[in-house]
Amino acid sequence: MKIAIVEDEAPAAEKLGRYLARYNESFNVLVILPSVRDAVIWFKENLEQVDLIFMDIQLSDGQSFAIFDEVDISKPIIFTTAFDEYALKAFEVNSIAYLLKPITFTDLSAAINKLNLIQGGQSQSDIGRFKELLSGLANQKKYKSRFMVKIGEHIRSVTVDQILFFYAEGRNAYITTDQGRRLIIDYKLEELEEILDPVQFFRVNRTFIINIASINDVLVYSNSRLKILTEVKAEKEIIVSREKVAAFKQWFDGE
Q1: What interhelical angle do 10-23 and 105-119 show, nearest 10?
Q2: Please, are residues 34 and 60 in contact by the beta-carbon 8 Å criterion?
Q3: What is the set of domains in the chain, with CATH numbers?
């Protein structure tokens, strides 16, 4: 299967690529398109090569729905987004699935399995049924609410509201609590991205995932980056990486 990915966040596109290869080694990602403009130009010349399109909704230069104003796309589309308010609109433009970020391998597998059923004539998109389920869409994704930690000879449960940030150091991942405690957890940051509520937590760089409630101040830093100050000072500066700045601002603004 030949696949095009429309996604402006490199880590998200890379994760999709890894999941697709894990699902089926023969899947071939032809192109990653980071903007509406790039997608329009590429699809006008190459759409017939594609079997499936993964498409984020919020791109750097606008919503991906604008692509359909310029190109007649009849290929199946799986939308990926952190927001649920565009679901009905997505199903009006040949969407077969609508995946809420952070996407898991299970989410992706279910969407491709659905495509296989549709192409086999055993199922089809059911917009009427989708409307009935839409009100509960946001609640279908369950996020982790607490973590078990070991403190000496004791085992404790720390709720996510008590966690200021997660961070990686060497091969280990840690939490820093609102009491200033630094505790090791048995997770990688990549795993945490999939199980934490994206409304509350954001991965600002390779090392830190931040709780929005922990942010005291955001400063403009060098080279168009941002520096985050938290309630409890981290051992290292928390800098929003350049490629994450736009997404961070959108998350911080609550859009």
Answers
A1: 60
A2: yes
A3: 2-139 (3.40.50.2300), 146-253 (2.40.50.1020)
pLDDT for position 200: 93
Find which of 77-86, 102-111, 211-220, 243-252 is predicted with most confidence, using mean pLDDT. Answer: 211-220
Among 20, 25, 85, which residue's Cα sits nearest to residue 52? 20
For 11-37, write each residue's pLDDT tens digit: 899 999 999 999 999 999 999 999 999
- Enter the tokens of residue 140: 């279908």
Helices (H), the chain: 10-23, 36-46, 67-70, 87-90, 105-119, 127-134, 137-140, 189-195, 245-253
DSSP helix/strand/coil, 216: strand
Element (DSSP H or E) covering residue 123: none
CA distance 151 to 125: 50
Cα 76 from chain centroid? 20
Pairing of strands 226-230, 215-220: antiparallel
Cα 20 to Cα 18: distance, rounded to the nearest angstrom = 5
What radius of gyration do the chain's Cα atoms show?
20
Q: Percentage of the chain surpassing pLDDT 70? A: 87
204 has a pLDDT exceeding 70: yes
CA 255 to chain centre: 14
Q: Average of pLDDT values for 106-131?
A: 68
- 3-class state of residue 182 by DSSP: strand
Count other Cβ atoms within 10 Å, centred on residue 5.
24
Contact (Cβ atoms closer than 8 angstroms) between residue 50 and residue 31: no
Does the pLDDT value for residue 210 go beyond 90? yes
pLDDT of residue 90: 67
